Amino acid sequence: MPPAEIHTVRATATPPAPRAPWRRATAWLTVLPARVRGWFPDREFFMRAQGQVRFIRVSGRVQMGVAGVVVLALLLWLAAMATMLTGQILAARHAAALRQREMAVSEAERHITATRNGVAGTLQDLERRQEMIETLVKGQLGDLPAADASAAPEAKPLSFNMPPAGNPMAAGIDRLAMRQAAFVARLTQYADARAMQAETAIRRVGLNPAQVAPLRGTAASRRAMGGPLIALGGNDPALARLGQSMARLTALEQGLARLPHALPASADFISSGFGYRADPFTGGGAFHPGLDFKGPTGAPIFAAAQGVVSFAGVRSGYGNCVEVDHGHGLVTRYAHMSRIEARPGERVAPGVEIGRIGSTGRSTGPHLHFEVRINDRPVDPRPFLETLPDVFKEAGHGGH
Q1: Cα–Cα separations (whole angstroms), residue 223 to 96, 175, 218, 219
Q2: How far apart, in Å, are the Cα atoms of 259 and each of 326, 328, 387?
Q3: Do β-strands 330-340 and 347-348 pair in parallel, antiparallel, or remain unpaired?
Q4: Longest dimension (CA), the chain
Q5: Tens digit of each residue's pLDDT (9 = 90 or more) over 135-173
Q6: How many CB atoms neighbour CB 260 within 10 A?
Q7: pTM of the entire structure?
């Protein structure tokens, strides 16, 4: 028989199933009291005093009570500290929020104040500017012609202190500024047109406008000038351009007003012209430096332009004579008077009587000898008297 086979079977231990978490917690709570009691075993203390030994026994329960009281006191202290800390944090947050609200209120007040100041400053700028423009118009140009929309120049907004965009008045102020800019552009255009007319008139009588009417700012024009500073409007280009146009117009029209343009006498006719002629005394050729206006003795003689009387007396060959200085080397001379009615230094306007027609000096009969001199050089008066009156009438000066 074959030997019997012996099989050894090893018993395999089955691992215990893992406990659920709640079971572990329950087991821990079950053993916790036992562990805590293990921390506080009964204790005995002995004391020796005066040869006697005494034993003091402190049970675990007493120890646990004392420890509980200490832990409770510690927890109460921690709770009080946490409450105080929480209160301080909340108080700090409340104070910070209060400060932020105060800052917001202060910022709002500053914004309102700045807005009010900005609007007030803007209105003041516009009012000052409008005052200046109206002064220029009334003092120098008079009434403007009716607006021509097709010829109106393009206007850019003038620079000024504009209030913040959120301000309810900003839109209205902006519209006012645009209207003002359009008016300034129109005013500049009108001043340039009038200045061109004056310059053309000066050239038509053969004179250089730069000599007759030097612009302000040159060395000659700065003599004997002064007065308070009334700014034209800061550094705005449109206002600066207007100022230049007005200065040019003023200089040209003042220069034009000083040119002879009013008839010096109500003469029947001109008896002798400017230039070479036969001398009435010798019959030979001679140069006649002016115009002779025939008229009755005692007829009035008028200043031909505004100026200052520089001479009133007797000159050789001229008899009773008056000379009027019109500035920049321009002088008019009135001769052969029967009577002088002007004094040296007197300011006269065109059409003002300065004497009477006569026949004093080198004269063959009652008449007015009238000369126009530039830098003491006689020029023909006829172009002045024939051209300029029409220019002044077109400009609305009524011939004066």
Answers
A1: 68, 42, 9, 7
A2: 7, 11, 11
A3: unpaired
A4: 198
A5: 766 666 666 655 554 555 565 655 555 555 555 566 667
A6: 24
A7: 0.56
The Cα 265–Cα 294 span in angstroms is 9
Torsion sign, CA atoms 391, 355, 376, 253: negative
What are the residues whose beta carbons fall under 8 Å from the beta carbon of 384, sequence distance 6 or more?
205, 259, 260, 261, 304, 372
User: Residue 311 has which token pair?
Assistant: 């001479």
Polymer length of the chain: 400
What residues of the chain score a pLDDT lower than 50? 1-2, 4-11, 149, 217-218, 220, 398-400
Amino acid identity, residue 71?
V
Angstrom distance (rounded) from CA 265 to CA 303? 9
End-to-end CA distance of the chain: 169
8 Å CB contact between 326 and 258: yes
HSE-up (13 A, CA, CB side) for residue 167: 21
3-state secondary structure of 287: strand
The residue whose two tokens read 């200046």 is: 132
**Could you tell me if 170 and 164 are in contact, meaning their C-beta atoms sit under 8 angstroms apart?**
yes
